[in-house]
Amino acid sequence: MGERKAAGRGARGQPRDTRTLILLDVNIRSSVRTVSENFLSIQIDPAVVHNGWIDFLSSKRLVTLARGLAPAFLWFGGKRTDFLQFQNHRNLAKHRGELGPDYYLKNYEDDIVRSDIALDKQKGCKIAQHPDIMLELQREKASQVQMALTKEQFSNTYSNITLTARSLDKLYNFVECSGLHLILGLNALLRNPDNSWNGSSGLSLLKYCAGKKYNISWELGNEPNSYRTMVGRTINGSQLGKDYIQLKNLLQSVRFYTKASLYGPNIGRPRRNTAALLDGFMRTAGTVVSAVTWQQ
Fold first, then answer.
1. Where would one find coiled-coil regions in this protein (predicted)?
2. At a CB cut-off of 8 Å and minimum separation 6, what does 159 contact?
């Protein structure tokens, strides 16, 4: 790399601004680092479980668009990760409550509407060509979800979300059909009286996914540095590290996930107190995570 400076005189003999010319010699014969082919990835917030919106993940149009993003990670997580609870219910329609005029949603059976949708099974995928009424319903549901998210954000009050086995099946079917890899965030705010993580719900989820042979990577919690603002609870880096060690042990106890990737701690910008939380976490659990995650 070289540097040259050029100067001259402008109108009426006034000196021009000095400019610097930099010559770069770039070695393109070998790479210094290689990023994962999944580097540019996407997120789905658990809020899609609300109001049956997750049922539209079987949309052929949506799957086709998502395939254009592959290979990539799909992170199922966000602020509502820590309000997510898993329940192994198969027939979601009985647990949804009244959905008003949403005829098609009420008639979902297992993964798909019974006779209202023609299935296109490709590589085991269940893809649906939704009729126009379903597309209109999709837009309506998306609008409702957005309003609910905005209300929760401004009020800083978040409601619990139940992730049923059926909803999880639909999520994984979407991931498989799209050629993506799922990273599933577990609820870190499920706590014992001593403030340690209560992993009973997480273990139930792990066992269910293992029984289905779902290829999933895992994460615990979302932006733990913001828990005091959100729910009035504080979890320091050392305790969070112990929680990750506990989750790692749970993964080791489920044969199918002994080699599964574990990511974390998914903090916000690593500054000041957040940097201290990250430091405590790394000292305790730096060796158990496959990669360190943080949000901009």
1. none
2. 83, 152
